[in-house]
Design a protein that fits this description.
The protein is an alpha/beta fold. It is built from 12 helices and 10 strands. The strands form 2 sheets. It has an 8-stranded parallel beta barrel, surrounded by 7 helices. A two-stranded antiparallel ribbon has the order 1-2.
């Protein structure tokens, strides 16, 4: 597999991790310095594109350079949000990779969201955090990360949970699993009508779980602002192309899009 102009994975193994964001670019004229990358201010949720693809990294991804290269490919493909979801339990690895991914996302002005870990999000200056039912409360995350932070909430298939999260100050509401998912095979199923009904809460809606090119359009039509994917992107041989194709679901379904409420 190759990345950028003639750089293979083997080449990248001898390269410092901080340089990967430069290697994966194909045109030298588009390169930015690491110092500029680190100083770029991230946009708040209100400044993000109102719909698009939300890419989530695989939960156990131990090849740093490959993760960074494929994450950049997702950004090049048009990802609107990137979530770092690591379940390795290795705090050092998580801190290193979250910092590297945040710098990469800053370059593309795409928010980096940290899964579950408010403290890690604060340490690396990420744009926000995604919280599940058993994670820290939304007000606690808001107090730690500030008023402009993006705080997402998993609502599964529960309208009451969505209402509570919206009242508590969530930035977006995530529903799923919409379809059977290899990432979470035991996840509860969320019907399309639950997603549609949640539009009344006035927040961006994220659909997750088993999303593909074949079923994604139905979720857009049902009211999804963002489609969250893992395998549909990282299990392919061309991450950038996969993201671009999935992102095209909004263009193909333009007449079915819900009106933005934020």
């Amino acid at each position: 597999m190759k990345y950028g102009a003639g750089n293979t994975v083997q080449d990248m193994r001898s390269t410092r991790p901080a340089q990967i964001v430069l290697l994966a670019r194909s045109r030298p004229s588009e390169l930015l310095s690491i110092s500029l990358l680190q100083s770029t201010k991230m946009p708040a949720m209100e400044k993000c594109r109102p719909c698009g693809l939300y890419v989530i990294t695989p939960p156990r991804y131990r090849q740093a350079l490959l993760l960074l290269a494929e994450s950049e490919a997702a950004l090049l493909g048009g990802a609107c949000l990137l979530q770092f979801r690591d379940k390795s339990g290795d705090a050092g690895w998580q801190l290193e990779m979250a910092g590297q991914l945040n710098s990469l996302c800053q370059r593309y002005r795409v928010p980096l969201i940290i899964n579950d870990d408010i403290d890690l999000a604060a340490r690396v200056g990420a744009a926000g955090v995604h919280l599940g039912r058993d994670d820290a409360a939304i007000p606690a995350a808001r107090a730690k990360l500030g008023p402009e932070a993006i705080i997402g909430a998993s609502c599964y298939n529960q309208p009451d949970l969505a209402q509570s999260a919206a009242t508590a100050g969530a930035s977006y509401l995530a529903f799923g699993s919409m379809f059977p998912s290899a990432s979470k095979p035991q996840a509860v199923h969320c019907p399309l009508q639950t997603l549609t009904a949640a539009q009344k809460l006035g927040l961006p809606l994220v659909a997750i779980g088993g999303i593909t090119m074949e079923n994604g359009a139905a979720l857009v039509a049902a009211g999804a602002s963002y489609l969250a994917v893992i395998g549909a992107v990282f299990d392919t041989t061309d991450v950038q192309r996969a993201v671009a194709r999935l992102g095209g679901l909004w263009q193909e379904s333009h007449d079915l899009l819900p009106h933005a409420t934020h």
